[in-house]
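Reviewers asked in the last cycle whether our approach scales beyond single polypeptides. To address this, we selected a multi-component target totalling 225 residues and predicted its structure end to end. The input consisted of the following lines:
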Amino acid sequence: DTGVSQNPRHKITKRGQNVTFRCDPISEHNRLYWYRQTLGQGPEFLTYFQNEAQLEKSRLLSDRFSAERPKGSFSTLEIQRTEQGDSAMYLCASSSGGTTDTQYFGPGTRLTVL
Amino acid sequence: GQQLNQSPQSMFIQEGEDVSMNCTSSSIFNTWLWYKQEPGEGPVLLIALYKAGELTSNGRLTAQFGITRKDSFLNISASIPSDVGIYFCAGLSGANSKLTFGKGITLSVRP
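The resulting structure, written as structure tokens, was:
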């Protein structure tokens, strides 16, 4: 399978714990995006990388959130001191950039904070 | 901020019927994308539109990029039960790389 992959698919944690999600983009794509989706809403942009550089962060990305893409391939999204409001689907997408920049999504990680 | 408007929130059709979905914006977009999402999964790209006025088909799906660059529509012809899902429009402004999504339309198909 050469699509975007995400792990884990589901994560249940207690409030106050730290969690980390991983995204592996389509291999030739140099752009990687993180989105968050809550029930009944469309995905909302969190941040994106061009290769290893983090180029933009949304105001939704509080200080408790950090994302990395150390070698320009896979990316991790960490949430520290989770809160119940962090419960959502976290989606990763990748694209090859350029003028069309079509983004392809992974299956997502469903986070539930108890 | 930018918003995409999709309505109604839900649509119920009979198998075999055609259905049309609209997406409008107060802002201009350079790219329009249509995605379908099923429960517990990520959005799957259906059609991408890159030029104003462009009309593109993908099997039974047809989508158009509005001339004003502020709207797009998606048509599904001869619907089948597996068309059930949530259909999202998304726009890319070109000023940055983040997609702006609508709230989605939940499509139900009665056999």
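The longest strand of chain A covers residues 88-95. We regard this as preliminary and will revisit it once experimental data from Aim 1 are available.
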